[in-house]
Amino acid sequence: MEDISDLRCVECLSTHLHRSCVAGAPDTKRLRCASCGAEFPVVDGIVRMVPRDSALRAEETAAPAAELDDSLQAEYWEDDGHGFRSPQDPIVRCFAEQRWRYLASRFDVASVRTALDVGCGDGFSTLYAPKHVAVTACDGSLTMLRRHQGDRRLQVDAFRLPFQDRSFDLVFAWELLHHVSEPHRVLAEMGRVSRRWVIACEPNPVNPAQHLFARLDPAHRWVLRFSKRYMLSQAAAASLEVTHFSRGGCLFPNKTPRAIFPLLRRVPYRIPLVGITNCMIARLPQAAESSTAAPHSLPTRRVA
Asked: What's the pTM value of the predicted model, to 2 decimals?
C-alpha cells in the first residue's frame, strides 16, 4: 500500500506513522507509530492495524467464548471452509451490480470520489463499485482479505478504524453489522471517517429464507434483530441522518441455485417487505459536513 497519509494509530490515535523494516529482515515491512511505538505488520500487502485489546486478537489473549460474541464472529470469518463463490461468479456479480445500481439511484453517487468498504470480505462489494470511485478495502479477517483483489487492503477492527476523521466521501458496509455486538458503535466510526455518506445493507429478518438461516446458523443469529426500527435506532445512536430505507433483492450470492438464476435475475430489485436486504443510506448532519476537512490524496486505481 503506497499511501498512508490518511491513517492514524489505533493505539494512541497519532497520525505520525511511517514505514520501516524489521531488523535483519529487510523484506519484512511494517508501519510504526512515532508517538507510542506501536508496530503494524504488512502481510501479503495487507496492513494489519488491529488494536492490542481487539476481539480479533481474542485467540492470542483468552480462552474461547462460550456464547456468541465478537471474538466468535472473528473465528467464523477466519474459517476457510464456508464454500463462498468467487467474486467473479456470474451470480455474485449480478447480485453486486444489481445492488450498486439500486443504491446509485438513491443518493448522489456522482459526487463520490473516494470510498471505504468496511467488512469487504473477499471483495465483490469493492470490485463492482462505480468505476469512478477509488475504494479502500478493510476487514477483520485476514483469510478473506487474502482473496481480495484490491490494491489497498487493511485488516482492521470496525470498532476502531485506523483512519483520520473525514477521510472518505462514502463509507459503506454490506452484511457486516449483524456480525458485531454493538452496531451503533461501528456506524459511529463509519460516520467519523466519512465526509458525507454512510451506507449499510443488512439481511432482512422478515424474509422467510433469511429468518430461517438466522435461526439455524449461530454466526448469523443477530440477523433476527435487524428490523427497520432497529436499524434506524442504530443510525440515530450514531448521530447519522437516514435519507433512505427500503428492502430489495432476491438473489443470494452464495446460495441461489444456478438453475433458477436466469429467472431471478429478471426480478425488479425493490421488493417491499420481503426483499432479502434492508438498504439504509444515511448522511452526516449538516454541521458535521460543513466542518469537513480537505480530502486526502488517495490512489485512483481500485481493483486489478
From this structure: 0.90
